[in-house]
């Protein structure tokens, strides 16, 4: 299940309760159902006999798997009973222009975070474009309800960024994978980075964005928006899957790695916010399916 804990979606602690570096120990591609997931390593003894030992491939990235799986199962139960039905009803009954406006406002509120982190990464051109996007959408776009900046003549695309991306950009490893209640899939690096990101908006906008009258409606709308956007993705990851937890972990880690690779000029990963649903269909192992042009 996918949800957002507060305000606009955080691209790094994006929940799948439902919204990056040098030599990482990911991504991990799960095995086919029934396939042995252990890595076999031969060693030579003094008698020249070959002794085969096995080690779980996921041990390094997911040392807390037993605890994570219990948290995943509890979160899934809440999602199926409460969050998913409400989010689907929201998607079915709320007019699309209204849903698009909510989505755009939430992401417009994240632009200051994106700007700061592009500065920290010395990407001055993208930082300037982010300021332009924020200014255009906040004024002409009515507080961000309309993404005018992406249209002609501006053509300023929405980009994702955050402090965890900055840490990954400079080579900080992700640390162990975790699946936390209310937070969803994350890593130590992403959890810390997301906490820092949440300080930016209150510093920029003042106490008005920390009052319950703002926080509660924004959080509720954020959860509905995020969960409804990810509904198709979650169905693919979880329904009739041999290991829904492993699919969720792989999906999260691969998208995070692609995001940082993109920032570092590697690979073909997208810089779209992690909290946004994939732009292409995904398979049952959480990988985007390439379609013919």
Mean pLDDT: 81
Largest sheet: 2 strands, antiparallel
- Listing every helix as H and every strand as E from the N terminus to the C terminus, the arrangement reads EEHHHHHEEHHHH
Straight-line N-to-C gap:
31 Å
Label the overall shape. Answer: globular
Strands in their spatial order, largest beta sheet? 1-2
Helix content: 40-55%
Count, helices = 9
Radius of gyration: 20 Å
Q: Would you count the extended β strands for me? A: 4
| β-strand amount | 5-15%
- Low-confidence spans: pLDDT under 50, at least 5 residues? 1-9, 11-55
Description:
The chain has 293 residues and is mainly alpha-helical. Helices cover 47% and strands 8% of the residues. A hairpin with a 5-residue loop joins strand 1 and strand 2. It is globular, with a radius of gyration of 20 Å. The two termini are 31 Å apart.
Which key terms come to mind for this protein?
single chain, 293 residues, mainly alpha, two-stranded antiparallel ribbon, 9 helices, 47% helix, globular
């Amino acid at each position: 299940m996918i949800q957002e804990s507060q305000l606009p979606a955080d691209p790094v602690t994006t929940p799948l309760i439902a919204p990056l570096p040098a030599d990482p120990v990911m991504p991990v591609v799960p095995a086919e159902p029934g396939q042995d997931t252990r890595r076999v390593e031969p060693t030579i003894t003094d008698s020249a006999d070959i002794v085969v030992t096995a080690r779980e491939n996921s041990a390094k990235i997911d040392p807390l798997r037993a605890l994570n799986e219990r948290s995943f199962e509890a979160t899934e139960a809440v999602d199926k009973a409460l969050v998913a039905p409400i989010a689907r009803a929201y998607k079915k009954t709320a007019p699309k222009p209204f849903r698009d406006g909510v989505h755009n406002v939430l992401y417009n509120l994240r632009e200051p975070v994106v700007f700061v982190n592009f500065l920290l990464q010395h990407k001055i051109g993208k930082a300037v474009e982010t300021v332009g996007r924020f200014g255009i959408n906040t004024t002409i776009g009515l507080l961000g309800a309309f993404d005018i900046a992406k249209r002609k003549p501006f053509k300023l695309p929405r980009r994702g960024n955050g402090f965890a991306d900055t840490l990954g950009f400079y080579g900080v490893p992700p640390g162990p994978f975790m699946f936390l209640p209310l937070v969803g899939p994350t890593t130590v690096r992403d959890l810390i980075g997301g906490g820092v990101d949440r300080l930016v908006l209150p510093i920029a906008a003042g106490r008005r964005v920390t009052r319950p009258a703002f926080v509660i409606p924004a959080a509720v709308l954020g959860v509905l928006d995020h969960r409804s956007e990810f509904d198709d993705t979650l169905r693919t990851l979880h329904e009739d899957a041999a290991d829904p937890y492993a699919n969720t972990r792989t999906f999260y880690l691969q998208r995070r790695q692609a995001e940082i690779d993109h920032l570092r000029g590697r690979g073909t990963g997208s810089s779209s916010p992690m909290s946004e649903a994939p732009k292409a269909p995904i398979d049952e192992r959480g990988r985007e399916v390439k379609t013919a042009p």
